[in-house]
Amino acid sequence: MKFQVSCELQYEVRMPTTFIFNILVSRTSSQTVLEETLTTNPVLPLEEFTSQNGETRFIRLQVNDKIKFTISYKATVDLHYNMIDPKHLLTTIPVNKLDADVIPYIFPSRYCQSDKLQKLAVREFGHITNAYAKVSAINEWIYNNVEYHPGLTTSSTSAHDTITERAGVCRDFAHLGIALCRALSIPARYFTGYAYDLHPPDFHACFEAYIGGEWIFFDPTKLVPANGLVKIANGRDAADAAVASIFGNTTCMVMNVKCESLEETFKPYYIHDADKQKGLSYQ
Q: Using one digit for the tens of pLDDT, what is the confidence trace for 155-210?
């Protein structure tokens, strides 16, 4: 399934500033980048580097003058995913059997304080034995108990804060889902990407849980179709996958984000009743 994604970010720089952008589509077994362009106006020197696993692609930019500039990215992507019957996702893999690359996603992290949410997680979901049903219940609980409220939270809001405030945006919903999974010894990781049919258009955050040896997609906001996401990055939380990390004094003036299907036959797949439908994996 082919998608075209793009973003345009404009900044006003007031002092020498280093930017690390995370806007490039990830190159994985589930995504093939057919073509892409990356430009700045005015022209500025860009340096691309990748994460340790080679999947997440970063752009580093040093701006030394007081200027306004725009960075623009556009890509055509062929997206693949697997539909998995939940009956094959019944069990949680014990921690002592987890692969080394999965282990980091079982620990508490900056925005996902799973150690502080363990009592809540056990009380609400500990009685569910089916691992996929357990994470689906977490997903539904967040959707039903946390209000989607743009502008209420900040970049420092954590999962523990979201439980207290019972409101947030996609980033906060994802952090809470991750924290509750980890509190139940289910590895979970942050997922950020370009999202089809998201209103208003923006980058989107959700999460994946490691169940039965597969990374399975969940989105407690239910704002976008599960098969309409083009991955930018995974991480322990948003600290690992921020769209822009800025070291200096600058202001973002404009942010335009798009994700469009290039296939007339594309049918959005929404996971509303996860126990009766199939799980989705981007691996």
A: 889 999 999 999 999 999 999 999 999 999 999 999 999 999 999 899 999 999 99
DSSP letters spanning 104-155: GGGS--SS--GGGSHHHHHHHHTT---HHHHHHHHHHHHHHHSEE-TTSS-T
State the CATH architecture for 82-241+267-281. Answer: Roll (3.10)
Task: With CA atoms as reference, report the closest residue to 51 among 281, 231, 252, 248.
Answer: 231
The residues of the chain that CATH labels 2.60.40.2250 are 2-79+247-259
Contact 5, 25 (CB under 8 A): yes
Alpha helices in 166-252 (DSSP H): 170-183
- Name the CATH topology of 2-79+247-259: Immunoglobulin-like (2.60.40)
Residue 32 β-bridge partners: 78
Per-residue model confidence (pLDDT) at position 275:
45
User: Taking a C-beta distance cutoff of 8 angstroms, is the pair 117, 180 a contact?
Assistant: yes
Tell me the pLDDT tens digit for each residue of 36-91.
999 999 999 999 998 777 778 999 999 999 999 999 999 999 998 888 877 777 67
